[in-house]
TrEMBL record:
Xref: InterPro entries: CYP11_CYP27_families, Cyt_P450, Cyt_P450_CS, Cyt_P450_E_grp-I, Cyt_P450_sf
GO molecular function list: heme binding; iron ion binding; monooxygenase activity; oxidoreductase activity, acting on paired donors, with incorporation or reduction of molecular oxygen
Alphabetical UniProt keywords: Heme, Iron, Metal-binding, Monooxygenase, Oxidoreductase, Signal
Name of the molecule in the record: Cytochrome P450, family 27, subfamily A, polypeptide 1, gene 3
GO biological process entries: C21-steroid hormone biosynthetic process; cellular response to peptide hormone stimulus; cholesterol metabolic process; cortisol metabolic process; glucocorticoid biosynthetic process; vitamin D metabolic process
Pfam families: p450
Annotated signal sequence range: 1-18
Lineage: Eukaryota, Metazoa, Chordata, Craniata, Vertebrata
Amino acid sequence: MVWWLMKGSWLLRPLAWARSCSGGAGRVSTVPASPPNLRFKPRTVEDLPRVSLWELLYRLTFQGFHSHMHELQILEKGRYGPIYRNGMNAVSVSTAKLLEEVLRNDDKFPNRGDMSIWKEYRDLRGYGYGPFTEKDERWYNLRAVLNKRMLRPKDALQYGDTIGEVVTDFIRRIYFLRQRSPTGDVVTDLNNELYHFSLEAIASILFETRLGCLEEEIPTGTQDFINAISQMFSNNFQVFLMPKWSRGVLPYWRRYVAGWDGIFSFATRLIDRKMEFIQQHLDNNQNVEGEYLTYLLSNTQMSIKDVYGSVSELLLAGVDTTSNTLTWTLHLLSKYPQCQEILFKEVSTSVPADRAPSAEEVTRMPYLRAVVKESLRMFPVIPMNGRILADKDVMIGGYQFSKNTAFNFSHYAIGRDEDTFPEPATFMPERWLQDSHNRPNAFGAIAFGFGVRGCVGRRIAELEMYSFLCHLMRHFEIKPDPKMGELKSVCRTVLIPDKPVSLRFLDRGSGHAA
Ligand code: HEM
């Protein structure tokens, strides 16, 4: 039942079966919901079209949708309409309007679903829960601490110089990589390079230290951490599915725990190093100044175990998301040279050529922001999410749902909905620059989620991506590498390209552009 926990597929979907949706899973219905009988009773969950568990399993296993869950959203929407019970017995919504209705009814302490296997690891090792694993009032209080210095746009700006340094190093690395290619302008496996960039950027903020991911040789400890993330995700699904008694017999639990051990040992080592640094300063009666980690460590509401738990989850959430979004954005810019040209003009007229753009400047470029928004609409890095609404009964799309109904959000299908986005398969950043009457419904593309449980790293991610694109545009014109062929998307929790991406980086300053 928890296919989203398959390799790479993780936590942004409800795991719980909705109490109000707990009927059997055997019936396949293509019959549209019966018309409302307003005089007697409103339509309920029982009136919704429904995908059976068997149909879902068939599609995942025999039709190969297990790595194309995003495309399954479109197929199911075509068959069952914009609101239906999916094969997991949760209610799937796939229009901006329905999504808005659900989110406007969200709980005081929003809940994406059961995180018990993640919690189990933390309980086993005595770590605190982080923003993903914590719930209810404790989650709310934790977010109040984590949001500070991170969530408001002006909070993120203080990291502008730190990010700027990482971006500068990455540009240097692009020059280095492309001159190694036979034509002198191609960078291969860009997704991997951007993964290292994102890890370096988020670590430089969270740990206030540089890891060296953009050096020629990536440090061993760092590669171990990257491998540990992959190991944890690869075994997540099996651990969820298998009964507890099998843990001593089958290898999955052991590997899953080892994966988490690798993630936490990396994070705790860096946190401990910072603690020692702070302690030395205090012992010498010196002032302690620092950024995010120093702030967390000096916060009396957080124990060191809580800091371990939260920082590890922030680190985990902050790498694949930004790196894949940047990969898709560069791919789209290479395919749409006219958009790239507009972006280049905006960048070069907004900031003098002799200096790097400031963090404030990069956030003041409307086309740049529209480019990122449009890329995330077409390739939402988190293509599905959800909520369990537990506070009250709700009315969504004319249907009455009782408390504890689980809703799934088909963000990929919503972002490709023709009614909200004419020519949905075309990259058109301009659509986000129209006046408020003509702008698309904002719920059509909410890549960072919504409300109090929305992405805590949003402003940091935006700063990273804007700063990156701004610098890159000034150095290079990006063109497709004809050798790469067509690029498709696959869903491994996050929406990623189906193969290593390679692109041509033509020097803007040298007249090298072809
Ligand atoms: C392109 C970049 C990113 C995208 C598209 C993205 C998207 C999301 C989404 C959709 C959610 C769920 C929100 C909801 O349920 O309403 C989320 C949650 C979260 N994100 Fe991000 N994210 C990105 C980058 C980051 C970064 C850089 C960090 C770390 C600094 C981060 C940390 C988190 C955390 C900790 C949560 C869980 C929040 C909670 O449950 O309270 N994300 N993100």
